[in-house]
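hey m, so remember when u said the tokens were messed up on ur end? i reran from scratch. heres the input so u can diff it against urs
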Amino acid sequence: MVKRLRVRGIQSMTKADAARKIVKCRLTVDLLTFNPKILDRLLLQKAAAYCAYQERTQDEVRQRIKKWGVEEEDEAEELIAELITMNYLSEERFAKTYAGSKFRQKKWGKRRIKQELSRRGLTSHNIDQGMNEIEDKAYEATLRDLINKKLESLERTESDARKRKQKLARYALGKGYESELVWKIIKED
């Protein structure tokens, strides 16, 4: 009798069929000693590789594990707990990396970064840790550069100074910068 395995689509298969299905998912398996413990270890390896590729949140890993066919929530939580203890998964590290990279590469403001981090299900503590990665001087200098570049392009198309300022403010606010800081910099320029 074949033991019922905990992965969707493998319950009523023979060992060889189950192994082929797992190999299709880029997992290797020893056909002679196939058992659910090996499957759990292979899922852990696959989840570890998924987390090692780039920083992930627990929700992202949970969704991916579900996509792989793990139906029981307890098993998914066990895998996530193991990934955390093995240091493959850290939401604080994710928040720091995400905040720093979105600020440096996409020039996003703190409001937009906070909104995205909270949308991804991070706690306020982790979000605050991520925000600490952004230095105030660099933040203001980046906003100043953004506004100056946008101003150069608007001067060619918009002749009305008031409309130019409104468009500058809308642009910076859309990037996620705070309105007080945006208007302060616009008035200085």
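this time it looks ok to me. The chain is about 70% helix and 0% strand. if urs says something different then somethings off w ur setup not the seq
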